[in-house]
Write the structure tokens for this entry.
Amino acid sequence: MKEKIGTKDQPLALKTPPLTSEYTMHVDQKDGKDVLVCTVGKTVLHYDIRILEDLHQMLMAHGDWMELGSSDEQKPAKEGTVEAWGRSANNPVGGWYGLKKGLRGRVGMYIPPLMEALGLAEVTHEAKGNRMRGI
């Protein structure tokens, strides 16, 4: 699966759920572990690659559409959203999947389109209030 995500030289080009902004995603190594590297303009975010499998399993168990609820690390996440799950002490990593302090949020913005591209989820593409479900 990680081969489909791309490399630093050939990252996977994606669009945010509302289809308004472009960004890239690729796999790289950090501290000897595979990480997702998300580049949005000049901003670079890192996510634990486990989020792909863990979020897929959670969505399949959830069995229905789930609101994305994307928000920055400094803002609270709306309960019951993908964003809230991505930072919850009750998820499989016991907290943040985002790895870069200050930029650990936005799971609900950047991970769903990647999962859609990998064939793991369906994502809605409305101006606001987007949702996803596992497939």
